[in-house]
Amino acid sequence: LGSWQWTVKMSILFSLCIFAFPGFSQGRVVGVDEAGFAECNDFFYGETPPEGFTASFNVKICQWYNKEPRFATLYSTEDKTPLYSAFKYTKAAQSGEESWLVEPQIDDPGNDLEEMVHEADAVGSVNNLGANQALTTDYVDSGYERGQLNPGSLNEDDFQLATYTLTNAVPMTPSLSESWHKDVENIVEQALAPHCENGAHLYLVAGAVPSSLRVKDKVSVPEFLWLAACCDAPEVWSVGFLKRPSGENGIEDLSVEKLEKQLPSGAHLFKSSCGGGSQSQKKMEAILQTINQIQSEEPILQTVAGKHGEGQRTQEKRGEGSLLKRVASIIAAPFTKLLRIIAYVLVEVVRYTCSFLWYVFKQLSNTAMGGLYSLCNGVMSYGKEISTVLVNIPWDVAKVAANIVMGVVRIFQNTLSLIYRILRIPMGLFLHIMAFPLDTLCAIPIVLKDVATGVGGTCSLIVDATGALMSVGFRGRNRGQNLGWCVLADNSHPLTFQGI
Question: Pfam families under this entry (predicted)?
Fold first, then answer.
């Protein structure tokens, strides 16, 4: 419930801002995956932001107003102050009414509000408001005021209105704020812009170096302020300026290289050092001469302004002593506050009425669109299913027919197999019975052959045995005869045996 109420409220508020105020501020926090400052890269020389400011708590902001980018800011969520604001010179103009804004996405990254809002409107709609950025209440009764790094007096129209954001302000004493804006305005308008085709290609970066001193233990007071300029004209040149709080009556001019040495280690303000060695020395000498003239005239102007201010303060003191003015101011104060309260109530009534009407319209639209979408979705789903069924009918019929044919073939195959198995047993037995006589008759010659072979072998064995016996007997007989003859022939001699 709270989510849709918030969405409706902000939608109506955004719409009212568009119709009631032609210009509205936006401060888009640039994502870490985006190159440089995204659409605000045009405010840097060579579309390249300064290098060396790489702390994890630094946030890149592309400052929008009236649907167009106006300048770029690098903001420190730890110090609650901007480290620098980069802008191009447009045209100096008288400062208008101040209307300070805050950036919701710095404190609440998940917030869908891309436009900057007034602090009072951010209360209740932005989580952790003031956790990462300074608020107007941080400056109340502190002795410091909101000093712009990108001075509104150096801009006109929408560019000037866009500078009144707390992400472009650092704590300055009233005297330092006045001196800073006056010095920057005079130097840029009288010395820098005239030597850069009236500022058509003049890139400016104004910054502050945080110190350990903090306002209400939260917002860091700058150690010093600085300004760097780069002219991207046919005759390229660059120059830097440094202003310390202790030197409120002057500003120090120096080269950009020397200024970079005063900044955090590794700081590099302009791509290729704004032209490097090709800078026009003639232009630089003319610019520095003009700056010296401006600074030499300032003490005289300050003396005249001081006397004029003292006269004004004397008159004001005399006027304040008037009882009538005091009574009038006391009487007018409650009525003024009452009128402001009535105006605020009327605005809130109109806003919430519009919110309610917008919610009713949105609900009716969502209901109608939801019903139409459901109907279209149902018709499309029904048509899709019918088409799928119609397309699949021939295929399903073919599959059924093929299954039937395969079933018949399988039944026929099983039947033949069964008949074969039934007939195989008696047919085998019958064939064996019928083949028995033939096998018997065929075996008789083989048996007779085997018998004859056995009888012949037996007879042959008998004959061989008889022959062997006769041979043995014949040999024994012959040996006996030979022995007897030998005995008879040798009776007169001793018995000697001679070899047979």
Answer: Endonuclease_NS
CA dihedral over 305, 308, 312, 317, signed as positive or negative: positive
| Span 286-299, pLDDT tens digits | 899 999 888 887 65
67: three-class secondary structure by DSSP = coil
Q: How far is CA 191 from CA 165, 229, 289, in A?
A: 27, 11, 9
* Residue 483 lies inside a defined structural domain of this protein: no
Residue where the block lists tokens 């001793």: 494
| Alpha-carbon distances of 482 from 474, 479, 500, rounded to whole Å | 13, 5, 8
Q: What angle do CA 316, 319, 321 make, to 5 degrees?
A: 115
Torsion 458-462-463-467 (CA) sign:
positive
Proportion of the chain above pLDDT 70, given as a percent:
81
Buried b (16+ CB within 10 A) or exposed e, 49-72: bbeebeeeeebbbbbbbbeebbbb
Q: What is the CA radius of gyration of the chain?
A: 59
Within a domain: 495: no
Whole-number Å distance between alpha carbons of 78 and 56: 10
Domain that holds residue 252: 10-321
Is residue 195, in this structure, part of any structural domain at all? yes
CATH number at residue 171: 3.40.570.10
pTM flag (> 0.70): no
- Measured CA to CA, the distance from residue 223 to residue 244 in angstroms comes to 7
Using alpha carbons, list the distances in angstroms from residue 121 to 10, 107, 168: 10, 14, 19
Q: Is residue 417 part of a domain?
A: no
The token pair that represents 17 in the structure block: 């801002």
The pLDDT, as a whole number, for residue 498 is 47
Q: Which long-range contacts (CB under 8 A, 24 or more apart) does 8-12 make?
A: 8/355, 8/358, 8/359, 8/362, 9/125, 9/351, 9/352, 9/355, 10/112, 10/113, 10/125, 11/358, 12/351, 12/354, 12/355, 12/358
Contact 62, 38 (CB under 8 A): yes
Within a 10 A sphere around the Cβ of 427, how many other Cβ atoms?
A: 11
Q: What share of the chain is helix, strand, coil (3-state, %, to 5)?
A: 60, 15, 25
Q: What is the pLDDT confidence band of residue 257, given thresholds at 50, 70 and 90?
A: very high
Extract the tokens encoding 149: 């790094």
Question: How many domains, in total, are found in the chain?
Answer: 1
